[in-house]
User: Which sequence fits this backbone?
């Protein structure tokens, strides 16, 4: 099964940038759906961005135009490039994985909702100051 390890969290000022990394390892990890979630104190864990094995991506409305998810297929590492950071982006960010779903004759990834993902990393804290 895929194992995930996040890194790259830290503190930045509003308007700044930060890149998170998630190293995925394990059998067939390169074919898994990968996603980033985040959770702030007293809030539910929400989906931020997802990427399929073929490179297709999905983003939460709150981060569209500011965040970019990508994957390095040579080392099975997924990244989250965060630009124009806002204090509202402050949260613990988690990497998540799912083997995908075979629906309608095609292999696709689940929606960016917590209950759809069963494999999680330990998380990395991102703090954005005003």
Assistant:
């Amino acid at each position: 099964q895929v194992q995930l390890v996040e890194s790259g969290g830290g503190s930045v000022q509003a308007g700044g940038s930060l890149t998170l990394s998630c190293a995925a390892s394990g059998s067939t990890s390169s074919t898994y759906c990968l996603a980033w979630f985040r959770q702030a104190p007293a809030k539910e864990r929400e989906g931020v961005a997802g990427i399929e094995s073929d490179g297709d991506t999905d983003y939460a409305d709150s981060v569209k135009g500011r965040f970019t998810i990508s994957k390095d297929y040579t080392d099975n590492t997924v990244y989250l490039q965060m630009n124009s950071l806002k204090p509202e982006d402050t949260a613990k960010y988690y990497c998540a994985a799912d083997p995908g779903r075979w629906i309608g004759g095609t292999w696709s990834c689940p929606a960016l909702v917590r209950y759809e993902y069963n494999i999680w990393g330990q998380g990395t804290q991102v703090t954005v100051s005003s």
About this structure: The longest strand covers residues 18-25. The mean pLDDT is 93.
